[in-house]
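Aim 2 progress update. The chain analyzed this quarter is reproduced below.
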Amino acid sequence: MKTYTQLVADILPQIDEVFPWDLEDIDPDDPEILFLDIRETNEFTAMHIKSSINVPRGILESACDWGYDDTVPELALSREKPVIVICRSGNRSALAAWVMQTMGYQKVKSLKTGLRGWNDADQPLVDNEGNTVDADDADEFFRNKPTTEQLTPS
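Predicted structure tokens:
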């Protein structure tokens, strides 16, 4: 049996990753690059990279392909364009990038360190209304907060 951390570690050598500071000169509004946020809808609504699209990880495979209720045409058409996959910490996005690569996406990269790292690199985040999110508020939002029940039993 593998843990979540082991699954991510196993696929990392097979995917491309990019750090937030490597994207400083990239305009999220550039139509030639797709910023794909695979966090849950409530996470995306709270804060995200401007112009990114939200496709929760749970429907990613059907959203990437034609002929499904979940198909996202912008995503299905992006198999040959640069796609930056985004999550909170870079783990879900790594797994998603691996799946997309397996499905034929040729220029997909995972955002290493995720939105936590994006925020730490002083890159802007916006809320659902397009308002800039305070970096300290974002820092608190991205902080790990497992409950006692979620920790490994002793």
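Strands lie at 16-18, 34-37, 53-54, 83-86, 108-111. The first strand starts at residue 16 and ends at 18. These observations will guide the mutagenesis experiments scheduled for the next reporting period.
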